[in-house]
Automatic annotation (TrEMBL):
<dbReference type="InterPro" id="IPR050740">
    <property type="entry name" value="Aldehyde_DH_Superfamily"/>
</dbReference>
<protein>
    <submittedName>
        <fullName>Aldehyde dehydrogenase (NADP(+))</fullName>
    </submittedName>
</protein>
<dbReference type="InterPro" id="IPR016161">
    <property type="entry name" value="Ald_DH/histidinol_DH"/>
</dbReference>
<keyword id="KW-0560">Oxidoreductase</keyword>
<dbReference type="InterPro" id="IPR016163">
    <property type="entry name" value="Ald_DH_C"/>
</dbReference>
<dbReference type="InterPro" id="IPR044151">
    <property type="entry name" value="ALDH_KGSADH"/>
</dbReference>
<dbReference type="InterPro" id="IPR015590">
    <property type="entry name" value="Aldehyde_DH_dom"/>
</dbReference>
<dbReference type="Pfam" id="PF00171">
    <property type="entry name" value="Aldedh"/>
</dbReference>
<dbReference type="InterPro" id="IPR016162">
    <property type="entry name" value="Ald_DH_N"/>
</dbReference>
<feature type="domain" description="Aldehyde dehydrogenase">
    <location>
        <begin position="12"/>
        <end position="373"/>
    </location>
</feature>
Amino acid sequence: MTATAAPEHCDPTVDDVARHAKEAFDGLARTAPAVRAAALRGAAAALADHADELVATAQAETGLAEARLRGELKRTQVQLRLFAHVVADGAYLDVRLDEADPDFVLGPRPDLRRTLWPVGPVLNFAASNFPFAFSVAGGDTAAALAAGCPVIVKAHPGHPRLSERVAEIVAAALVTAGLPEFTLQLVTSQDAGVALVDHPAVRAAAFTGSQRVGQLLAARAAGRPEPIPFFGELGSVNPVLVSEQALRERGNELLGGYVASVSGSAGQLCTKPGFLLVPEGTGYDDAVRSAASAVPEHRLLNPSIADGYERRVAVVRAVTDLRVVHGGGFRRDADGQAWVTPTFVAAPLDLLRSAGAALLDEVFGPFSVIVEYPPGTDLGAAVAELFPGNLTLTLHLGDGETAGEQGELVTRLARHAGRVLLGGWPTGVAVTPAMQHGGPWPATTTDGTSVGTAAIGRFLRGVAFQDAPQELLPPPLRDDNPWDVPRTVAVRGDSLGW
């Protein structure tokens, strides 16, 4: 069941929502992995059954293209199924058993058994730019449910009808599969979302959105009498570094890929390359203009996004000595919606240093800065100075350039991003076990990932039991291992051979 309604004044009370989540946690944390896995698969199947309805609603509310939305809905189903596999496998519990050992090298060792345990009810603030994959049934929700945590979603106002419908469909599927009532709930008002950050029943929160709002919520979560983990994705400019040789070998291909990556979904992607660093004196204008002029007009997500885009573009274009390579279009309709084509500007590296935030802050939309760096530039130092924390950093090298000092550069880049690409483009985040979608501040508030199977770790905590009778242990720690999960065992007497 889902506590949800479209008008803000119809939200259930915060205390009711929190109480229902706490009650659901008591049952959900004890469910066998097979039951939780089946529920996640059931939720994925229910979304597939309603695909036509959901995609049509998403199109109307967000202006995103049908093909993009169908792909995103498929990704959402895959995320749920991927976490079902993780739960069924059981390795995520990281079960460790230390046999009692009177001869342990540091003195007698008790019987110790450790596992990971769900933290409790999770509050998830949905994102605007991924109405399926980072919203009600998106990756944060899937990871928390997989961990055994009930989820309260704060719906994004950019797609309210879609949020309500997805919550109804998924919540019903979870209950049908045997999970407790109120495993998934939805609230719509901003006041309810903020109040739930403070509520003692909520034990962790996830957020995808602006740096300003994310910082406020993170401070609130940290300032509680009992602080809670807050996993916030706050924005990223995702610089792309290109060597002179790479441009010489495949310049048109690289520049065409760059324009496509900036322009996809009207640039409303957290991994959009906001900066392209190229050697000084490179002739890139014609290739960029040619590719950009072929990009069709696309609607921004909502009037609020349009307002922010218009303001930021105006600030950037007011910077003295900035050069416009391709001036994109911007028009608004009677409803305040904006339709845009991409804009590309160019600046020498020193101008970024002198202009500061005016140039360096993220522009959310189809806008990017081409940065010209002089010969001998230490790119690792430039990244550390100007782009200290990002979701991604990309390096394009020429044939034979992968040896020598480039290895040191890659190591230095890894200090400033969660994902380092050697070729390719950062837009398009693979939903796979090895994905890292997070990065150093200000990309995210804490080390973690919101994509890939490691995302489940944000909603788990370690618990050890010492000298506990079998009947008092949770199932994964019992000798008979009724959940049949993988376990690491420290055998009695092993330390004598160390």
